[in-house]
Batch of 4 targets.
Target 1
Amino acid sequence: MAQSASKTCEICVSAPGSHYCLDCQQLYCANCKSLHKRQKLSTNHQFQNASKRIPEGKSRCSEHKEELYFMCNTCNVLVCASCVTGKHNGHKLSKLVDVIAQLRDENKTQIQGKTNEEITNKRKIEESLESFDQAVASVIKAITDEGSKIKRMVDTSVAQMIASIKEQSQTEKDKLINMLSDAKSVLAAGQKLDRRRQELAKTRHDGTLVHEMNNLKEKINKIQINDLPNFPKIVFNRKHVAEDDIMQLIGTFNLSNCSPVLENEVQSHGYQYICPNCRYETIDSVGEDE
């Protein structure tokens, strides 16, 4: 068997062993690999870059020197055929190939599940960003429309309110952008682990593979999918006040995670909206002449 520290071709014992045959478990140089692939018995052998192969561990029983073919589920150790009839007799056993297959399926399912969940979260965040931008633009337009009615004396107040909206909305947008960045990072981590899972699928079945797949499983379990918070909303609230109070005459805006619902129609004023959670109240004026 090839040793993990060896970098020399094990056939010609002269050129660098840059290719690893998964079937023969030996290092080959480029020329010896070419000859090996032309031989009828080894034409279908699979090679991988020697620098990427998993270092070999113990694949034989330390007591009986036999190949480790089983996993003792009772003791959680790999065992050979002699162990099965010896001190592990009567224990619950699984074939090594079945253990690897189960780990591979579990890792694949978990990665796909978490990846799909994060893809959905990413889409919702992106949709919220687009919707929030439209809402901000709508509020800015409403404020501008209100300000145009009050002519020259209210122009300064309109500019101040728009600046305030942009400042506060940018804070909320920054939060969503950070959430989107985190979601992309989690998604990238999941995709990286999935590529690792695919690499392990090409590796021979031995005790080291079980160790590597268990490590992969632990990393998958550490992936945290953050819960989505309530996305920010913004509305503009018209107010009818005295002419000497310019800021109040223009109106105010509310940026929160609330979702006001229509409570009733207020005569001569408009529609009354109340948030069922915090009881925030606003009245949307209707029927005014431009």
Target 2
Amino acid sequence: MESGAKEEGKVLGYNSKYVKKVALLSTLAALLDDPILADVPKEPSLSNVDILINLELGSAMCISIFKLDGTFFDVAVMNSATVKDLKLAIEKKVIELEQSKMGHRHISWRHVWANFCLAHHNEKLFNDGAALQDFGVRNNSQVHFLPYVVSKGSGRHSKSRKHRFFHGLNKHS
């Protein structure tokens, strides 16, 4: 009789990977509706859950990111995180927030980081490889976006200068 039940289960697909995945997703959805787990994203990745667990254990920190318009959001990174790790966490969080509000939207992060930088207590976080703790960033710290202006000594030309250069070539031809 047991073998007949096993055969019937296989026929109906109760042992298939798809059914197990559906059961896991429904269990996960039920867990995420719990108010205690309100800070977990709706579609969490393993890294999201890992960071949140480490945040509870004290080996990760929550940082408030203030935008230029005065609004802010929180991101969680490991205590040993670098500036690059913080930037990646910001990108991930902003994409998640934008998709929940307006659906898919492309943000050019190359443009964002070329025109804005992060600062903590008016100290700009330029070096992507530097540890956040070297700048005094701790749990519940505030990091602000600031406009990033390239100094003249960097060797980069402005767009208007490039335009004038190419415009001059056309006149001589």
Target 3
Amino acid sequence: MAQAASKTCEICVSSPGHNYCEQCDQLFCDGCKISHLRTKMTKNHTFLSGPNINPEVKLYCKEHDENFIYYCLECSTPVCKMCAIKKHKSHDFAEIKESTEGIKAEVKMLIDMKMRNLQSKIKNIDQGSTKYQLDVQKVIQAIKEEGRHLKEMIDTKIEGLMHTLKEKDTGNVQTLQSVGNELKTALDKAKEQQKFYQDTHGIKDTTKLLQKLKQIKSQIDQIQEIQIPIMPSVKYDIKTVAEGEIEKLFGELTFGETVKKEENPKPQKNVREKPM
């Protein structure tokens, strides 16, 4: 086998071996390469050329210590000439270089297909995520709108209760003030007659005193004592609202859960190994 470290032509063993024959697995200098390609049996051999070629990567059949020169299509494996005769006698073969090109094309196709599938799925994920975020914003807006509507209804109810309370309060206060004013007027009249009565203490004439007392008594009798109305009252019975009753006022959230799909396992294709 050629040694990459020497980089010396293995034919003349004197010039640099920068040309690697894939069929012979040997390094050739430029002159020996030309001679090799002029020979009838080796004119179709192919070369790798350049200072960085590494012939050691070429695979050998460890069992027979021979180069792999064929590719068994039925077993999907490279074989040497001895393997072809002994173990793969009735199988279909192709030249290893030809097979390598076919496998390269197949692998490239698989890579391209896999990338397209993955890119398509990534696009679907991105689009789905964007749509989901828009849906979330719509739901948030709907919840806020419903909350505002319910709050408006509550505020309207509160305003109605407050209006009724204030309206009733105004009427009751006016009634009480009116009764109070009438009683105050009657009290003033009574105080006036009280003063007249006190003045009678200075009257010595019995006839005049009697006449004056009759007048005071007549005035006192004319003062009306109106009945005190039943005092108004007000109270508010607080209703205890359960959480479940509040929930009935709102809509309901529903989610489509994110579930990773298990893809159906596909039968594995026979991917041919790339001979080196």
Target 4
Amino acid sequence: MSFIVKVPTSTVGISCETTRWMKMRNHSRTSSSAMIPRASMATPKIQPLNNSVSNIQIMVNGCTGKMGQAVINAASSAGLNIVPVSFGSEEESGTIVQVCGKDITVQGPSKREKTLASLFDEYPNLIVVDYTVPAAVNDNAELYSSVGVPFVMGTTGGDRDRLYRTVEESKIYAVISPQMGKQVVAFLAAMEIMAEQFPGAFSGYSLQVMESHQSSKVDTSGTAKAVISCFQKLGVSFDMDQVQLIRDPKLQREMVGVPEEHLSGHAFHMYHLTSPDETVSFEFQHNVCGRSIYAEGTVDAVIFLAKKIQSKAEKRIYDMIDVLREGNMR
């Protein structure tokens, strides 16, 4: 017996044999990282949004990267006001990036706090979006917290416990999520509910996992780790180092079926469960081409956060599950 489950973000399916990957090629695909002193802050003066997203001003840090540029494109299409300044590395300082017909000046690490404070005065509804690098996560969060600017953190990595402590102590508003794809987050939430309500349901089953990402991604996907964690709670014995990472573009094209135009930006995940007697199998697959799914989710997170700030919500730190539960996504 073979049972294939399909979920709305992509599909569910995997096996470690090359032939199984080849059979899945035509399955549906979804288009689609100097310590600043912390300071407690009062609720910032925010101008009324008047239900118009054009009153929301966003600063995208990491605008020289593909994810940052995808967010600017999505935000511009949604009608958000893009601030023409972005923080980057020392090497990028002074660079002018053109996105959506807008010139964005990249500023290096020096005088960041003074610059951000000045921008916050000029743009009182400012929300920062961070798609930088893992090594910058904590320093950046401490900068935003020190100035009192709310932010959406899409960058993965860093010391996550320290990140949350920084935001909690500063009392600013933030959405923090390493996964911004709304449908992928919904799938993960469903997996977590299943793991919580039916622990041990897959006891004795074996698990095979493969995931394919652009060659620049060297580590195992955080999404894959989260899904595997759910399977472990469901009774499956599996070590993270058993994940097969596909990073060779030739294999991605020929074995996984990644379209040529998306080799530089994709996320194909496949999970295969087999019963102890090998008479039952479950396959889970979700394929994402491009970055639009994450960019659109980020824009929804920005709009969500702006509403929470405007309503002076008691809760200050959110994730994408909170954004999904709000139910007001575009």
